[in-house]
Structure formats: structure tokens, C-alpha cells
Amino acid sequence: MCNDGNSATQSVRYLNSQLAALYQNASECVQNCAPILDFKSVDYDKTKYTRSLAEFHFVGPKPKKVYSTSELFFSATFSQPKLTFICNHEAILYLTIKSGHFNLDHTKANVPGFRVETSKNKQIKDITVAFRMNFSRSCIKGGSSKIGNGSSHVIQLMVLDFGSAKLASFTPTQAHSQTEALSFYMNSYLDFLEHAGHHTLFDIPDFDDDKYSPVIDYSLSCTPQDVDRLCSAEVVHGIDLSQINNFMHKKWLSVARLGRPKDQLSACLAEISSSWLMNSAVDSKFHIQFGPPKVLALCKHEVILTFDVEKIAFFHSDDYESEEPEEYAHWKIAFVVDVTEEKEHEGCVTRLKLDLNTARFSHHFSKVSETTEFAIAHFYQIVHFLSVDYLDVLIQYAMHIIYHHDVRTITHPHKHDHPHSASESDCGSDAEEEKGEWGIVIEKEKKWHRRHGQVALWMERIEHTVLCGYDQVLAVSEESINQMFFSLWSKATRKDFDVLLSKWTLDMFTASFEALRVRLLTNGKAIIWVNVHEGQLRVKSESEKQKWWSVCEFSYAKSTDKTEVHNFSDLSLAFEVDLKMVEQKTMDLSESWLHRFTLSHLFQSHQGAPSRLFKHLILDFANAKYRPELSNVDCLCEGKGRMVVQKLETAISYIKDYLTDLSHHGHNVIHSVPLFTAGDHSSFGLTSVAHHIIAKSSITVDNCSHARKPHESPVILILGMCNFRELTFVPPQWNAGWVISGRGQSSLGTVCLSKSNFLEGVLLKRLATINSLTTIVPNFAGVIDGEWNFDLTTWAKHMFRKNRECHWTFTGHCDGALHYVWEHRDGWSHEHEGTSGAEKNGQYSIDCRTRNKLSIPTIYRPGLLEIVLHGESSLKISGKDAHQSWSKKSSASWSANLCIYSRSNGLQIEVTGNTAPVFSDLHSEGECSIDVQGLHAQHLPKTVDFCDILDELKTILQGTWEYSSPGHFAYALSNPVFTINGDLILQLGSYDAIMKKELAPPIAVTGSPRSPHHKSRTELTVTTTKTTGGSGLEVTTSTKTVRKSRSILSRITSVKTSSLFNSSSSSSSTHESGQISSVSSDSPPLTTPLLDYTGTAVAQSTYFSKSLEGESIAALTQEGHAHVEEV
Prior knowledge:
alpha+beta, Bactericidal permeability-increasing protein, domain 1, 4 domains, 8-stranded antiparallel beta sheet, 50 strands, SRCR, SRCR domain-containing protein
């Protein structure tokens, strides 16, 4: 054993000496014996292994006698072999061909009886073939009295694994057309050598009587030249070195930018001081600043870990601030370390860890430029410190993890795309392997489940959505937030909106941005990605003289500083932010945002109520926390030293200022809710509100970038109570139906109205009026002036009953519907007896019956919610006197369908069916002159009137949703469906996007007076005028006349651009305008401003009533057509 404790060099020499001796034996055998060409002979069989290191003939599966070696596929003589070692796992065996030949037709070499075509033989000479292979060490323990020196000795063996051998190189390099054949024969030669026993050698003998055994570490004997020559393409457990070093660089960068955190040792990968540790292994006082560590691979199990000591200062006292230290720079301190691989989550997660317990200092890969005695002494002091103390600190802070990858993670979660979930095959196999000499594979039982589409999600929504006692729950999808940011950014790039979202400059920083991207976390926070397309920043130049070991707070470069300019692109910084619900009056908002908000649908809907309080759900950009593990900062990593840290810190600091600026302009508002305060009343206006994030499984910083299916994304729930009922927080349960996004749909979320709030509070209450109008009750019955007489009325007109509701009774849920019924029977019986001959004695009765049924579907039908009502009414009058008995019965029925359609412009509500009562044949017995059916028809409504319920439903559901909005935008409702619990769920879409589709070129509509020849016809002249330029110069005018006969309410839409609001603008602009030349006097035009996603007034809708003829008014094109839509 040498002084350094490593006997690797002696071991290599000893092993090669054995190979040399064995080769000399083989060479002598070849030289002293006559050539043998009969490969079936005993002579050949007895000596073939002895001569194997010096001579080899490829004889194939069936040895035979030949007359010349040229008849063989391969024949060669060899020089002495050489064995070298790269690490403690792999060796290189060099085999040199002195002379010989090989045949190119190697694929036929193992075909019995195949004759060699000598024309395909290639002569070879002085070619060295290098094989890289695994090896293992073994030993034989025993004792012999003849040996002495103790009772037990160890014979060490080196076993080369020829089966794992891979061809490393040919020297000189061979033509590509020949390497395949030559490789085949040389691999056959290795197999021959293994059968000859040359894969097993004795290592250094240990028959002495001391207690020390030789320590052999081949890795420490490896040199940089060996690595460059033999390991340049090596990977570690299948992971490329560039990926590992990139991971380590990012980890170092995230630590280096921390400066001096409270827990100083947490920055150990970038900086460490002897004063941060107690009872250090060395006495010196020092401070070290590290560059990013790097690894070089020796094999897949071992690496060279190099610490880059950028700067180091040695002190004589604890007063680091005032003392001038002894400084050194650019030291390299390397360790040979084993690497272990970990697999988790069925193979989805791969992690590489340094086994720092195996770390050994490598002087071959270390570097110290100074040659003074003090410098060398300090250098080895630090080597000792790193070996004993520092590596343990790295383990404590998990800095020994050099690679981590999760295949479930989306490569670019910050990009606006449509990620697909990771397939099962990405996450490894479901099979488990039982280790042993023979591999046995036991497969787990697999249950296959078919894929489900939108229908299953709707069923989930209907069957499993529970509101937990809230009056209203609004679900905001993660996708909708990202759509909003993308839409705003798109407009900003076209300069149609706040340019801040696409470009921003502050001091010596400028950047152009892509759209913000959000991912929600289940802890009530969110990750926001700020994506910089291109940018430029300036950082301070590194000073030659500065106390780098002192605590230095980051500061921006000033115009007076010496700076360096750096351009960058494709930068993505991730920040963790809180989700907060705040009152508008507490927010620092710009005048531009406040102005846009006052023009919004939400504000306009409530501007008549000054006591209305607006709350906003915001992303708290002001307290954003940088998340390095989710960021992509590769574009800033070019350069040396701390300049990389300065660039990153500068970018992060400026982006935080940018986020603050975004907050000031309201771009962090993702949802707005008007709160109704004391004195206000609304069935759906919220008086208290909270928010909560739910997901199928926990979403954290660690797994938020995992791929997932769209319906499994987390959802923000806005939870509210109405009419000042107390809000008790109960988190609703997750189900896939909270938000449904499908192909061709643009669902921003859902709003859920509780059973008590909508079904009972509006629908059943209003439909109870139908019961009161269709329920006939007796008002009086008796004998007057000798005749049977009675009076009927309806419940709605009855003196005592008209103020009481005709409540619907729930009868159950079956056949995909909630069933309700209203039943009422009122029967009067009258007996009259007297001596007056003027009055008829007898028994008289009247029976009034009403049965109304209501069916509310709980099955999703695309585009339609159809509520079915059916009513039955009967009136029976009967009598009996001394001479006869008689009766008459009248029956009637009616039906109606309350249809809520989902159209391109939102919900439309109408009533269909036979709402006029239909009377069946009169049932009569005996003689009765009373017109029972006439009386029945007189008191039943001629048609069942649904006007009140229609008006209220249209107010609530059509147009914009007035009780919340995505910022200053607006929601439109669609696809209503009732759950089995009676709650109403509606999808939320962008009302602004709907109006963009509905917006048409401006028009002028002129109604002409009725012609005497066309008394039922009214003509409308539709005129489109287009003007160009700031002066409003008219360019084109087109006119079209349309006709319609029936009375409708039509909407004429005109488009205006923001230039109309800035008459002083000097730039050329194009806009269109329109007017209604005349409308009927009983329906004056109403003007309502419309807003697009920018909040700019872009259109106005004028409503008017006219008597028209024809089916519809054509939707006209940009060249002169107008859009007149029936509402």
C-alpha cells in the first residue's frame, strides 16, 4: 500500500503482469508448435485455449480441416493485451491484432457447411480494439499451516464481465463498411477468451501477517485525459450529463440569489463561512463563494463532483468587516462520488442522488493555481473542511440531489397550449419483477375502463353537485382565467388595449411579453408565469475591489454606475401569489381601470344603487414569491461568476415591479361581485361572499405543472348567501361537473342557484300563480226564488283565498325529472225542504276539481331545458228531487312547455304548447238546463297566462348575468340544467364575445307608412354608411328594403371604434355609424352601450317595435348588410 492509501496502480500493474505472462506462454506455444489446420483434431483441442491470447481462428459451429487459414472467416495473431480501469465498475481491455484477415460475409459465419468466398477477405494489421466492460471483485478465504502468518488469508480475484463488453474504439479508425464484420469477429474472440478462463485474474496477494489489506480505488487513479478519451459520451443511469449539470446550475442559481437568508446554511451551495458552523473540522476563519458545481461521469454509477471555489478569503480574526483578508480565487476541488437512482410513483419520477458518504478527494481533477506554501496549506485545509463538514451540510439541505424529473410534468406549463395528460406508459410498467437468477414477471390485474365524454360529465354534474347550503355558488375555471389573460394580451399587442400587457419599460429594463399564465393551487394560492418574449437589462459591472464576503443588499444599476448590457429572450419567471377577495375601495387602482369599470355591464346594472359595494377576487401580485423550480431562466445563465446571479436578480426585481404596475391597472382582477348592503333587496344579489379552491386531488407547487385532463383542473368557487342569511363556510366537494369545457365550447365556468333561491323562490312561486288562475272554486250555492243557483270564481279572485299561494307539492324524482303537483277539490252539497210551493225541494251539489302537474327535467339536453306543465279542470253539478235526478260534468285540459333555449346570443325563453283550455265532451245524466260548460269556460282563462313568469325569467337569465362578472367584462348564461337536488346550474360564457359575433356594421332603419294596397305590411329601409378618416368623410352608402308582417321586438346594432371617443386624434381611423330614421311612436328607441374585453364602448343597441312582414330580416355583410335580430 502506498502512502496515499490507494493500491490501484499496483493492482493494475499486477493484473497486466499476469496477462503478459499468459501472453508469453501463448506466444511460445504458437511459435514452437507447427500450425494446426485440422480444427477437429485433438492437438488443436488441447492447445486452443493455451494459445488463445496470441492466436485465434474463427472455426464456426462445426470445426473442420482446412488447407489454408484463408478458408476461415477470421484468423489473426495478437500482441500482448492491456487492461486499464476507468472507475470501480468498468475496465478497458485493449486487444491488438498484429496480422490476419476477416471476411465481410460475417452473417453466414455460423451457417454450417458454408464455404468462405476468399474474394471477400480483408487483410488487417496493427489494429487495436478497445472493449469497455463491467468487472467485479471476488475473494477466496481460507488458511493453510504451510503458509503461516495467521490462520486465515484472502486470495483476491478480478472477474471481467466479457458479456457486458461494448466496443469502444478501433485504432486506427476503420471504414464504416468493415466495422460491423470486424466487431462481430472480435466479440466472438472475447467469448473464446472467456471460455479459455482469461476473464478471471488474481489481484494483489495478501499473505503477510499484518492487519492491513490493500485498498484499491481505480476511480482515484483516473485522470482528466482518461475521461476526455473514454468518458466523453457517458451518461449517468441513462441521464445525459448536460441535463444533470443544467439541473445543478439552476439549483445553484436559485440559492445564490438568496444572498444571506435567515438560515444562512440554506445558501450553502453558493456560499459558506466558517463562522456559520460550530466546532468546524478546521481552525481557520474563512469565507467561500462557490460557482455552480459540475459533474463528470466516469460510468453510470460514479461521477467526479467538482466544486468551483470562485473566491475564498482567510481571516485572522472574527472582524471580517475591518480586516483585510488573504484572498485566493479559481480553485477547483473534486471528489469521486457514487450516484444512486431512485424511482417513485410507478416509475414516473426519476431522481439521482450523490452518495456523499462515498466521496473521496481526487487530486487529478482538483486545481490550485498558487504555488506558495501558505496557499497549498490553505487549499488542503479547505479540502479537509469540505470532506468532513461541508458535504454533511449539503445532505442536510438536500443539495445532494443532482437530478429530478417527473414525466407527468408538462415541459412548458407557462405556455398557452392544450396539454394532454401523461399516458400510463410514461409512468412505467404495472409489472413487478421478482429478483433472482431467472427473472419472473408477475403482472398485476388490470381493469380497463372505457373513455367517457361530455355526457358522463353532465351526469356527474346533475347527480353529484351539492351546494352545501349556499344560495349561490359560482365556479371559475382555471382555463377561463388564462383565456382572459390571453385575450387581454392579444388586444394589447394590437394596441387595442393597455399596451402594458405586451410591452413595459422601467429605468434600464425593457421587455416585450407573452400572455400571463396561471395555475391554481389547493392551498388558496396560485402560480403566475410572467413570460418575456424579448428583453434587455443592465447590471453593474463586477468591481475588482469589493467586500464580497459582506452582506450586500441587491440594488438596481443606476445611470451613474458602470454597467453591462444583456439581451435575453424566452424568459419565464414563476411566482406564487395569494388569491384574495378585497373591497374595491381598499385597492390602489388607476383612473383608466376605474373608468373602464364604470362602463362595464356589471357597474351599469347597479349604478342606480349607490349603496352597492363591489368586491374583487384578485391575484395578490404585490406579495408575489419567486419560484425558481417552476421558472425557465436558461437565457440568463450565459456568462461567468456572479454576473449570472446579478442578471437573474435584476430580472426578478424588475418583474416584481411590473406585477405591481399590473395590479395598479387592475390586471390582477379575475372576478367581481356586487354586494347588496342594508336596505337593498334582490333574490340573487349576494350579501356575503367567500371563495375556495377545490380540485380532484391536492395541487401543490411540486405537482402543479403535471399534465392533467381538462375536467380535472382545479376550480375557484365563489360562495355566496342572499338576503343577509348567515354564511357558514362548508367546503363543497369536488366533482368533474363543476366546469365542463368541450370541443367547440367556450365555458368560463358555471353559476349554481340553490333550490330555495331559484326553484322555490322564483319558478315554483311564479308558477303557483298559474294554479290560482286555473283553480275554480264555488263562491255561493243555494235555492233562490225556487231555482237552484250558484256562483263560481277562481282562487285568484276569491275574497278569502286570493292572498294565499297555491303551493306545488313535490311528489318525487323519477324518469329523469322532478315531479310536482297541485290538486284541489271543492264540493258543496245543499238540501232544501219547505212548505212553500214556490221553491223546489231537493238535494243539490257542485264539485270543482283542479289537478296541475309540473315536470322539471334533470337530464341534459344540448341547447334546451324544457319544463312541462299540464292542467286538468272539471266542474260537476248535480241535483235530485222527488221526481228525478240529474247531473252535468264539464272537463278541460291544457298544457304548456316552458322552453329555455341556448342560442349563439345567450338564453332565449318562450312558452310553447296548447295554453288554451281544451274542453272534452260534456257528460250529462237526466234533464238539466244549466250551461255547465259555458260556466266552466267563463271562469277558466281563455289562455293560461305565462307573461309574469316569462318576464321574470328573461330579466334573470337573458342578457348579462348581473350578479358577478370576470372583472369589467360580462357573463352570458347557457345550457341550464337542474340537479337531482333541485339546484339550477348554468354555464358561463363571455357575453362580450357573444356581442362581438352579433355586432354588425352600423345601419340606418327607416320605417315607411302603411300603403293602402298593403295594409298588413310595413317596409324598413336598412342603410349602412361607412366613413373613413378623422374628418368623417363619407365614402359609401348602401340601402336595402326588408319587410315583416308580425309584431316583433328587433335589435339594430351599430359599431363604433374607440376613435369616436377621441375627436382630437390626428391619426386616420375608420368607423361606421348608423341610425334609425323612424320608429313607431309607442316604442321609443333605447340606447345601451356595449363593451368588448377592453372595456371600450364599441357598440350600441337600439330596440324598437314594428309591424313587419316576412320571416326574418337578413343578416347583412360588411359590404352593406345589417343585422336585425328578433329578441
